[in-house]
Design brief:
Shape: globular
Helix content: 40-55%
Radius of gyration: 21 Å
CATH superfamily of the largest domain: Glycogen Phosphorylase B
Number of strands: 13
Order of helices and strands: EHEEHEHEHHEHEHEHEHEHEHEHEHHHH
Strand content: 15-25%
CATH architecture of the largest domain: 3-Layer(aba) Sandwich
Length: 371
């Protein structure tokens, strides 16, 4: 099957999807909408054709839409794909739907339907695109429900959590990183979300600074990068905790388990999410999680069993959660429960097969399925 895979930028998720397509025998042509920053250090999977085109080298704005549509029309005519697999909804799937190409397999990246489609142009664009999609791939029930509310047929939605590589992400014992940082006796919090407002990293910073005033054991590992970097540095400097925070930046995929294994608790204050892959990675590594109580997180974290919730945006509850975790007598048992959940529902080697379900449905009109 000849597949045109169209995504916003090259990320670890894109690498996994295209790898699975190639392993299934598909002829994969990769169309990258824009280039913002290096999110994935691994080269494209073997056999994937990176399409050389007008896009893929810079940020694309709405004013570029006429040129974008013109270029895409020419590419579709030249490549003649059997189907197009595109997402996020308003960025990549929308222009394909505007051109009337069929079959279109639209893939939600979570925030496109849970946040960007709440109102206005984002909602109209999502509804238009879903109405012209043969299938929607959704990574959680919250995304599925949002799509149904916008008119997407239930039997045209394939739900599966993107999952993780359970052999790569696992508990591997004491981490040398703690020793290198001099944090052997510390209680280490880990944040892996991009440093952008939508992911609540400002709340994580505020919560850590205030919790650290009363607990000298607390340390914070922050991975990633983004527009809030300068603000975060200023915050930690002003609060006098910069020496208790390690901002490691963007970490290669191969090294990620080292950081999960260096932590005692995973934190996410994200304001919107589907099935967060970083949360699943943390659970696979045996970390209990303290997360905002948004629908996507509630599908994975059960308070008192493998972690805790706090009300989205309420820093006082985040601080209380950090205190509860730091005082917990048996965090390891919560981490083990998280690993069991990951093994049962977040195994990428099993979940990736849902891509084929979506493709068969798009090409043959068979019923969709849920994970």
């Amino acid at each position: 099957m000849r597949v045109l895979y169209f995504s916003q930028d090259y990320t670890p998720h894109d690498y996994r999807f295209m790898s699975a397509m190639g392993e299934a025998g598909d002829e994969v042509h990769y169309l990258r909408l824009e280039r913002r920053r290096n999110l994935e250090s691994r080269p494209l999977p073997s056999g994937v054709d990176l399409v050389d085109w007008w896009g893929g080298t810079r940020r694309i704005t709405w004013t570029d839409m006429p040129r974008l549509l013109f270029e895409l029309r020419g590419l579709l005519g030249r490549l003649k794909p059997d189907l197009v697999h595109a997402g996020p909804i308003q960025r990549c799937a929308l222009p394909i739907s505007l051109l009337g190409f069929r079959p279109l397999v639209s893939m939600s990246w979570g925030s496109d339907l849970l946040a960007d489609a709440r109102r206005g142009a984002g909602k109209a664009a999502a509804a238009f695109t879903l109405g012209r999609s043969a299938v929607l791939i959704a990574d959680c029930q919250a995304v599925r429900q949002a799509a149904i509310a916008m008119g997407m047929r239930k039997d045209r939605i394939v739900v599966f959590p993107w999952g993780v590589d359970l052999d790569h992400f696992r508990r591997i014992g004491p981490s040398r990183l703690r020793g290198n940082l001099g944090w052997e006796e510390a209680f280490v919090l880990l944040s892996t979300r991009a440093w952008e407002p939508i992911y609540g990293v400002d709340l994580v910073a505020e919560g850590f600074c205030r919790a650290a005033r009363s607990d000298p054991r607390l340390r914070l590992l922050m991975l990633g990068g983004g527009s809030l970097e300068d603000m975060l540095h200023r915050k930690f400097d002003q609060e006098g905790v910069a020496d208790r925070v390690h901002m490691a930046g963007q970490i290669d995929f191969d090294r990620l388990p080292e950081f999960y294994n260096a932590a005692d608790l995973y934190l996410s204050a994200s304001h919107t999410d589907g099935s967060s892959v970083s949360l699943l990675e943390a659970m696979a590594c045996g970390l209990p999680a303290l997360v905002s109580d948004i629908p996507g997180n509630r599908e994975w974290v059960e308070p008192g069993k493998n972690g805790w919730w706090f009300t989205d945006g309420v820093v006082e509850e985040l601080i209380d959660g950090i205190g509860q975790a730091a005082a917990h007598a048996d965090l390891a048992s919560l981490g083990k429960q998280g690993r069991l959940v990951a093994e049962s529902r977040a195994d990428w080697s099993r979940n990736a097969g849902k891509i084929r379900v979506a493709y068969r449905l798009a090409l043959n009109g068979r019923d969709g399925g849920e994970a």
